Amino acid sequence: MTGEETRHILEAHANGQLAGNGPFTQKCQTWLEANTGCIKTLLTHSCTAALEMAALLIDLKPGDEVIMPSYTFVSTANAFVLRGAVPVFIDIREDTLNMDETLIEAAITSKTKAIVVVHYAGVSCEMHAIMKMAEQYGLFVIEDAAQGVMSSYHDKPLGSIGHLAAFSFHETKNVISGEGGCLLINDQRFVQRAEVLWEKGTNRSSFFRGEVDKYTWVDVGSSFLPGELIAAFLWAQLQHAEEITDRRLQLWQHYHLAFSTPETDGAIRRPVIPDHCRHNAHMYYLLFNSLETRSDFIAWMKEHHILTVFHYVPLHLAPAGKRYCRTSGQLPVTESLSNRIVRLPLWPGLKDQQQRVIDRVLQHLT
Ligand SMILES: *Cc1c(COP(=O)(O)O)cnc(C)c1O
User: What 3-state class would DSSP assign to 301?
Assistant: First the structure.
């Protein structure tokens, strides 16, 4: 935390408005629009909620298909399953662990409506190729940029490239508010309806701007917005977003240099950041050669009181994934990498302990 969160929360308390869409929500949204270049943002209570809004905005019908990676968090798929749509999983790339854009075309059918990209570890997917494919087939692109705050692709901030995008401010992410997120809109067609969905299906936002003379139920919707205390907390974080990112990048780089020799020796593989991607050091991971060598490593680190974790169980292998989704072809890279990845501790408050982590890793690997 930055130390300024409680001051803003006290100010929100003094303002007397605790419901959402107050002064702190406005400040956060203005900041997010200025820093991403998207035309409109709406704070939500989670990235999951923002993805649910995106699924509503593109008007999915039961049976419509949405192409996405299986190597992701459940919300990427769930938001679309809730609308009766069918996630169609494609494999990921060996280098960035992002969706393999060369597999998209073979997954497109007459039912395909959208491509949902996930910028894994805050490293961008190959958006030029993906946007071109979407345009050619008339598909929407939704960025699950939960991990991508402050990252960019060819100097364009993540979240500003697809038609719609979602950030997460969950406490496990880089910029946080406990639970929290936002919808980012890059296509004017969605702006007005997004505000209505956000405000429980009412035209409350237009009413407060004086555009309509009564406030009423006009569409479907839900309560997607966070309260002002959450926005007040987030405001402190956004004001320090650059510092938080710089600090994480320093720590990331320190790990990266330290593990260069074991990579050369073939003991592990380090993350790959393409030259045209600026990342946000959301995570530092190592790829082992097998499930067995990874398990040995996690046990070794645990013995030395260092918690290292893996993820994700690929969605196509999960019970709900089997029930609601299908795959396009085999997913050998997803299945292999998910068994071999391990994440190392990384947060802005990490200081001398980082050297202890590094020493233990090197001791095990060499
Ligand atoms: C964290 C995460 C989410 C969910 O974010 P919430 O804010 O907790 O809803 C969705 N997708 C990905 C890729 C994530 O990492």
Answer: helix
Query: 250 and 110 in one domain?
Result: no
Q: Which of 205, 238, 271 is the last residue of a domain?
A: 238
Is this structure's pTM higher than 0.70? yes
* Cα 72 to chain centroid, rounded: 9
CA-wise closest residue to 96 among 148, 30, 22, 53:
148
User: Which structural domain range is residue 250 located in?
Assistant: 241-365
Q: How far, in Å, is the centroid of ligand 1 from the Cα of 301? A: 27
Residue/partner pairs of 61-66 with CB below 8 Å, 24 or more apart: 61/85, 63/111, 64/111, 64/112, 64/113, 65/109, 65/111, 65/112, 65/113, 66/112, 66/113, 66/114, 66/115, 66/116
Residue 227 sits in a domain whose CATH number is 3.40.640.10
Q: Give me ligand 1 centre to Cα 362, in Å.
A: 31
Write the CATH number for 349.
3.90.1150.10
Q: What is the pLDDT of residues 301-350, one digit of tens each?
A: 999 999 999 999 999 999 999 999 999 999 999 999 999 999 999 999 99
Question: What tens digit of pLDDT does each residue of 204-213 get?
Answer: 989 989 999 9
Cα–Cα distance for residue pair 296/287, rounded to 1 Å: 13
Pocket of ligand 1 (CB under 6 A): 46-48, 72-73, 75-76, 118, 144, 146-147, 168, 170, 181
